[in-house]
Amino acid sequence: MRQKGNGEERRMAAKVTVEDVERVAELAHLELAPEETPRMLHDLNAILDYVAELNELDTSGVEPLAQVTELLNAATGELRGDTVLPSLDRAVVMAQAPETDQAFFKVPKVIER
Amino acid sequence: MSGNHLRWCPPRRTASGPQCCRPVIEGRIKEGRLSSEVKKTETYVEKPKPLAELRAEIISGRTKAADLATGYYDRIARVNPRLNAYLSLTKGRALEQAERVDALAAKGDPLPPLAGVPVGIKDVLVMQGAPATAGSKILEGYRPPYDATAVAKLDAAGAVLLGKLNCDEFAMGSSNENSAYGPVRNPVDTDRVPGGSSGGSAAAVAANLAVATLGSDTGGSIRQPASFCGVVGVLPTYGRVSRYGLIAFASSLDRVGPFAANVRDAATMLGVIAGYDPKDATSSAAPVPDFAAESDKPAEGLRLGVPAEYFAEGLDDEVRAAIESGIAALKAAGCTVTPVSLPHTRYAVPTYYLVATAEASANLARFDGVRYGYRAPASESLSALYSHSRDQGFGAEVKRRIFLGTYALSAGYYDAYYLKAQQVRRLLAEEYLRAFAEVDAIVTPTSPAPAFKLGEKTGDPLAMYLADIYTVTASLAGICGVAVPCGKTKAGLPVGMQVLAAHLREGTAFRVARAVESARL
User: I need a labelling partner for B400 at 20 to 30 A (CA). Which of B61, B111, B184, B331 fits?
Assistant: First the structure.
């Protein structure tokens, strides 16, 4: 196992700030009530402090592994042909949406006249 | 195709968000009666009949599939109010299927492999016309218009689909306490959690509310609850079972797998749901062996590895003792046991929580109040509609994970967190590949401790994550495994052994698990 010596830079130890939490909330389309923010800040910092343990490992030159299919020795199936196949009936799908005009999903107005 | 038998139930929406009530259930479960009558720690454990026995009864006509299904619904009506394992029942479809099976049996026609077998489905897999909540308020009222592939395969094999099973919201949790519809209780001790996230699936088998069930496992969500409830749970190889129709959590990790009361039945279930599916590009084209027959082969001569890293500090003494008895039994069954080293194990939990939350933040972007499920009322703009719907629809743990994942993927942090985690993921996977060059299977505890009490860990998310230490490595490496009961603590709580095997070697894991089961520890 390749471990770094002590005193190496700790790239992950960044402390999350209230501004970070607000920025992430915006990116993720989530809201946090003012009373929820301190708890989220605390939890994120605790978790990020913990995951910073990964900095102990020297991973220079290690190819990232995004998913494991490559390890299965080409056992995955061929990609299916690029052919049009019947799909779900539009009316059935639209029936599950909160608001539609049957053809399209309805949302609040995006473009002002 | 009998989804039209289900009663349409429009979602209730209020200004304060969707109501957190159990989805309306066909053949309505009477609530509360049992919970006031029984002692708090009474056990509900009952073993389902083995599949082979049920099959023989149904073929001969001694048992009618319709009577069997009705009997299961009666037991569910009695026991579910206390355990909260089922969220909704699909009686119309179940009884129609049971009658079809009985008609075939009466004619003496050959019956499909699971003909008449009552099974339950974790509520993260979709069933046409039945509620699909994923344990979340945000999907309340959603009735998917199609069957997941694993569900369709069970249906085609003649299984009787009883209903949908409770789980942690979007399969995020290790105790089932993150369900918006209330926690599941462990049938062994109702003061304790059943594990998670597939808590309902494990509890249903342990309490004989189904003969077998389906769950999903992203970081241990089948293996850990199987261990807590004393049943068998299978983590198939990544790609072995199609995820089409599985509500996605972390796509590079998510697997669909079975629970059953014994190893052979779990192997039979896997045989039915496994195989290539053109609707899931990650599904494997590798041939599907007869897993039940594989599980019948003796374990004699198999080389087993025991990693010291899984028996280090933090392992409960009684769990350690039970697993050591299991290993002794495997030696007695003719396996050779050697130490193996998996030194990166301690980095698996941080790696897992970075990879899984990053993927979750992307997968859960689709829940936006536009296409299905809950929409916040009176939103002034599209952006407000998204954020109000998500704020009111998601629970605390789901929000926490979306926050963590979004942060880890955001500009300036991507390399330090997500990329770093993917690099460590390769080191973890390669470590397993090296180990499997020397041994056929690796045996470990499934969880460092037996089932904990409800509420014990809810205040500390990190403590909850750390309990996944023994299960997340196999998730990251894509290998397969079986959690099999391996003795009990003095207090009678089940202990589970985790048997891990290389990619596509489920048969080997079943053989080892069968030997542990046969030792009757």
Answer: B184
Domain boundaries, chain B: 32-350+420-518
ipTM for the complex shown: 0.89
Burial, B431: exposed, middle or buried (Cβ in 10 Å; 0-12, 13-18, 19+)?
buried
**Taking CB atoms and an 8 Å limit, are A63 and B423 in contact across chains?**
yes
Interface residue B237 vs chain A (CB under 8 A): yes
- The pTM (predicted TM-score) of the whole model is 0.92
Distance between terminal CA atoms of chain B?
Answer: 43
- Kindly list the domain boundaries of chain A, sorted by start residue: 1-61
Mutate to test the interface with B, among A8, A24, A100 (most CBs of B within 10 A): A24
Contacts of B421 in chain A (CB under 8 A): 51, 54
| Residue B238 token pair | 């990544």
Determine whether B462 is exposed, middle or buried from the number of CB atoms within 10 Å of its CB (0-12, 13-18, 19+).
middle
Give CATH for domain B32-350+420-518: 3.90.1300.10
Q: How far is Cα B453 from Cα B467, in angstroms, rounded to an integer?
A: 14
By Cβ distance, the residue of A52, A56, A71 closest to B503 is A71
Secondary structure class of B509 (helix, strand, coil): helix
User: Where does the pLDDT of residue B16 fall: very low under 50, low under 70, confident under 90, or very high at 90 and above?
Assistant: very low
For B58-100, what is each residue's pLDDT tens digit? 999 999 999 999 999 999 999 999 999 999 999 999 999 999 9
**Any A CB within 8 A of B343 CB:** yes
Instruction: Mark yes or no for CB contact A68/B252 under 8 Å.
Output: yes
Tell me the C-alpha distance between B145 and B134, whole Å: 16
Indicate the pLDDT class of residue A74, thresholds 50, 70 and 90.
low
Q: What is the DSSP letter of B411?
A: T
Q: Is B240 on the interface with A (CB under 8 A)?
A: no
CATH 2.130.10.10, domain A1-61, yes or no? no
**pLDDT tens-digit map of B17-70:** 444 444 444 533 444 444 444 455 568 999 999 999 999 999 999 999 999 999
Reading the block at residue B340, the tokens are 């193996």
Size of interface A-B (CB pairs under 8 A): 198
Determine the pLDDT at residue A15: 85
* Residue B236 in this model has a pLDDT that exceeds 90: yes
